[in-house]
């Protein structure tokens, strides 16, 4: 009995006094010895070892948490850095080669339960469709812009309200990027409702603010349905109604002027028509049939306010991995798109597809490969041409190295 | 003297009123659920003034619930993750672990399957999709139907850590919400393989050895069985009041006998 007490005292002394690294190893040996000598049961031995490890982890976490400022404890940061070499040429024109980078840093903090604030900083200029920055101008220092900033409130399990400058993909669904460049962050108020497989995204977004005039804006209503079985398939079908207000006669910043327009006496360009667009689309991913993932997507849109040149569509597929996160994972994707002149406002489409203009059609092929965890090699090829006038196809090849953190 | 007696009576009445109808809320692991149910029932028999409410949902749900202050005891079939501990601490909750039992994640197959043993490497390859047919490991020419627990489950997390080196379970694995669901699916699917808590082994399914070691009380307690794991109850700091009385009961000789009745390995 006395011997048992001595052994137990030794264990307790080690747990209480020695540094944790020594305790872990010494404690294992001592506890095993105690079991072998019949002082304690194997179950009690496991209890002592597990609890000492748990206690150590808790103490370490407490120490780490208590040394960090409160704001760091409640904030999650993420970001990426991308190096790109871009070659492009329009038929009959000169080829252009640019070395570019993109840096993005975003964070989201919990203000209180259910209420979060997010922000994102990104390289590039004021172009809403690009965060790329070309290496140029004698090593000049580059700008960092506010990419997004929003407050999001989960009012109920089925209702999320968001206000601010928001990544478009986080407040409404799209099957492809032919209507919405993935860099666009919309500005306004959004409400997302979910019930079982059904979802309804709505929003009011400010496109411009013009003194003494009604402001161009967009109202979006998007009902949809999502079916998914983890590890087997995922399918989404959605319909979207875009009501663009005050578009006729508007002069929009960052317009490509590929929509129908007129010039006033001062030679300022104005949109000639209205835009009320209906879009329907769907995507389907099937997992572990021939490949880790196979996907199909299609989307169709029609500007019901226009009389002609009012349709657009995109179709495509991919094979490989759904997302590239690790070494040796890969994906190949093909898509074809067509956007007639007045089918969609030319301030929104993918900026790499003929400069983001409407009145275009063509293909894109993307190959991505995981070089190591969170490091991706991407090769993106576009061949797009204009649909009217003299056909001038444009080819773009982008070679990317993307580093995510 | 009369005054002192009345004061004592008043204090006692208030104290008793405070205890009367008190509630202890447990939430978390479906693996620990049978232990919680058996012990709670017995505990309430002896202590009619307290009600123990037990909710499942998975270890992650229980731990989140403890961190949010919506339960008094989180039951878990895995350790808390560092991120969960930090989250709890930053909310003013100080998770304290209580090991209440040991368990072995048991590998089970359909009784008609001739396979008797799998190596850890073979199990990892089956669950990550590198082995897809039983004939690749000496069995019949039959597709392997991989059954796994869903991602909210502590058993899933523990299995991923112990058996898969934190690799992800293949995407076509059929995910089940409980040990019982896995047991039923294995029993009715000739090509199936699944993993369940030690307490859920029945004669209707076939237990196989891992690296030649049988999942048993002795091999689990000695940690010789490679998929041994502790089962936990977590409280906010050192337990007090009815929470302490209940935890003490679970760890008592009587409580540990109930742990064994539930099919798990007691510590005593």
Q: Your description of this structure?
A:
- The complex is a heterodimer of chains A (405) and B (268).
- With 405 residues, chain A is an alpha+beta fold.
- Chain A contains five helices and 19 strands.
- Chain B has 268 residues and is an alpha/beta fold.
- Helices cover 39% and strands 23% of the residues of chain B.
- Chain B is built from ten helices and twelve strands.
- In chain B, the strands form three sheets. Chain B has a five-stranded mixed beta sheet with strand order 2-1-3-12-4, with helices on both faces.
- In chain B, β1 (22-28), α2 and β2 form a beta-alpha-beta unit.
- In chain B, α3 packs parallel to α4 (82-90) and α9 (241-251) packs across α10 (253-261).
- The termini of chain B are far apart.
- Residues 9-20 of chain B have low confidence and may be disordered.
- Classes of the chains: A alpha+beta (405), B alpha/beta (268).
- Chain A binds chain B through residues 41-44, 46-47, 50-51, 53-55, 57-58, 60-62, 64-66, 70, 73-74, 113, 230-232, 287-288, 292-293, and chain B through 68, 79-80, 82, 85-86, 89-90, 94-99, 102, 129, 150-151, 169-175, 221-223, 230, 265-268.
